[in-house]
Amino acid sequence: MPSLEYEYLKSILTIRIITFSAWTDPQDEHLPDKRHGLLADSPAAFAQAGSVIPWENVQEEAPFEMTNRGLGITLPLLPLEGGLSVAALECHQSYQDNRYLGIYLTKVGTGPNQYARVNCHKLGTGLLSHNTRARTQRLFVRQAQTDEREYQRTQYFQLRRIAFALEKYTVLDMIYPASADAGAGGLPNETSQARTWVPPNFPAVLPIPKGSRKLAVAILLVRPSDNEAVVVMMGSITDLQVGLCVCEAETWNQGYGALQAVFATGLTQFTEPWKLDCHHVHPEVKPHVQQGRKIYTVDLGIMAIPKRNVKNQAVEQLLETLESAPVQRFGKMHALFRRTKD
Hints:
By secondary structure, this protein is of the alpha+beta class. It is 18% helix and 35% strand. It is built from six helices and 18 strands.
């Protein structure tokens, strides 16, 4: 049980958390990926912080607060290689040094702007100065960090709602790895909303394959009014991130391997909408943990874009070409097409 002295020290650190996050843990030198919060676990972590000097900032600081997502704090954040970032603390090592000290952070997939501290055996020095163009960002850091690698083998997509604009679509087919059926007995419960659009012979909950850029499911949706089809694919970006890819239906009959290749080269995060000639797809994914399993509930919105007439499209392209051509050569033909179009 923590001593009263430690609890008192911890309360002091909370008052001036931007400065007193400048602690280190030498034992983490061999565990650089180990995740921590912003507060130290022990007063011993400040053994090397005797030379740290608070920066005299005359500007009003953004407030920090404890939330259900951890400590909410606003810091200048500079992206580094390997998925790391360094956050500037309002302190430095000497009065002659105008460089900020920094701590290393990594983004975690438990929510937007959610981070954890890593590389706690050292502070970032010489990376940030007054002239460094680091973007100030609101971020959240949980004090108790969960190693997300525990969920690598038990991550799932849970199809939930779908919304249509202008015209309705129908699920014609789905393609997914055979392992999805093999592990059906251990899947989370599906939502009743999914059964209004996912046919009974297809799963509404699918395991996410472990690894980078792995396809979990491809869904073929068809618009009955004109038989225009679109393929929505979901899978992993990395071991801990998921993403989406949308494409036309030309490669569907080539099977899972062809779809996997398209997915690996074209995927993006769920926060970005996809716009094709005849379809706009707006995805939304919300992660949560249920009984030790990480589950991404997926809602899709699809807007039908009317199919353009091929003949009119060809005429418009020709007119665009004539617009950019020299008037002396194409003047009469340009006028003829103008009259025809009008």
